[in-house]
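Figure 6 in text form: structure in, sequence out.
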């Protein structure tokens, strides 16, 4: 438990430092953009490749992946069902809310928490691949269909547009440097030999930038954010997505892990921590691309990010 609390303390300090850097502008106005690009395109891919290249496949695809995938799908379906009956929103808005409730921040926050709190990256890569190769394409297919069947669209091409959108989403996901590095790492984990240490060591060194860099960027992103603006933000949808993300999702993961797969100890802690991660920023990217649920995605990410820390501390206190 002391180790878990120490891990969270490290995270909080670096996030706070990022907020201070953004407030003081000591690194300039473009510091967040530059640092984010460094983390996304260079450091995080290096970290994932180095970590996975040193493992085997049986250490990657475990029950953690099963629980994370099933719980995310159930939460997304729950949001869709409740919001459809309660708020009568169109499919395009429902899918953004469903993503806000079930699509977790497995990279920017998942990796630091996995390393500092859990001590390994075991759940990050399978969860990352499931989200960007399965969950996100499904959501984009729904958005493409809604767009193609909207006013002025040609109905017969609706299914083709949805299929093209899903295929495009998969191709875009695979081209992501993080996913490419993860896939390359899986290949190295599958083959019966490992790369020489002289080749892996520079990759490892670059990868060490990822965790502190991601936490600094995260802290910078919290500065100056205005959430839940009266008359603008869809507060009921945000509340529903946030409650499902921070409460229902971890509880579902606990029930599936302990009840269905008989998980205990560190393995059970891992699946619950993974489920308690906040809404991913990728949801906002998708919402902005299709012009639906932008404020819902933005404010849900902000609220669940702020609320995730006490939830994760509670989870650690109960299960660590």
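Output sequence:
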């Amino acid at each position: 438990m002391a180790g878990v609390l120490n891990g969270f303390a490290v995270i909080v300090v670096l996030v706070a430092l990022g907020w201070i850097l953004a407030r003081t502008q000591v690194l300039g106005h473009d510091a967040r953009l530059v640092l984010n690009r460094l983390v996304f395109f260079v450091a995080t891919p290096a970290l994932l490749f180095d970590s996975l290249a040193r493992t085997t496949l049986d250490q990657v695809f475990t029950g953690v992946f099963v629980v994370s995938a099933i719980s995310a799908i159930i939460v997304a379906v729950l949001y869709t069902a409740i919001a459809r009956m309660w708020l009568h929103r169109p499919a395009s808005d429902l899918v953004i809310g469903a993503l806000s409730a079930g699509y977790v921040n497995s990279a920017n926050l998942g990796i630091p928490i996995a390393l500092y709190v859990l001590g390994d990256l075991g759940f990050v890569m399978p969860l990352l691949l499931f989200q960007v190769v399965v969950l996100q394409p499904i959501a984009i297919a729904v958005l493409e269909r809604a767009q193609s069947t909207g006013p002025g669209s040609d109905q017969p091409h609706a299914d083709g547009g949805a299929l093209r959108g899903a295929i495009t989403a998969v191709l875009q996901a695979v081209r992501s440097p993080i996913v490419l590095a993860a896939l390359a790492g899986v290949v190295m984990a599958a083959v019966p030999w490992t790369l020489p240490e002289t080749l892996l060591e520079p990759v490892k060194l670059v990868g060490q930038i990822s965790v502190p860099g991601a936490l600094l960027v995260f802290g910078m992103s919290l500065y100056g954010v205005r959430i839940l603006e009266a008359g603008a933000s869809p507060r009921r949808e945000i509340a529903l997505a946030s409650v499902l993300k921070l409460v229902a999702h971890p509880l579902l993961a606990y029930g599936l892990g302990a009840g269905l797969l008989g998980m205990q100890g560190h393995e059970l802690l891992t699946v619950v921590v993974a489920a308690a991660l906040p809404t991913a920023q990728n949801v906002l990217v998708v919402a902005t691309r299709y012009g639906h649920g932008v404020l819902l995605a933005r404010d849900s990410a902000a609220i669940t990010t702020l609320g995730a820390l006490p939830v994760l501390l509670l989870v650690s206190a109960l299960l660590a």
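Caption detail: The CA atoms of residues 101 and 245 lie 5 Å apart.
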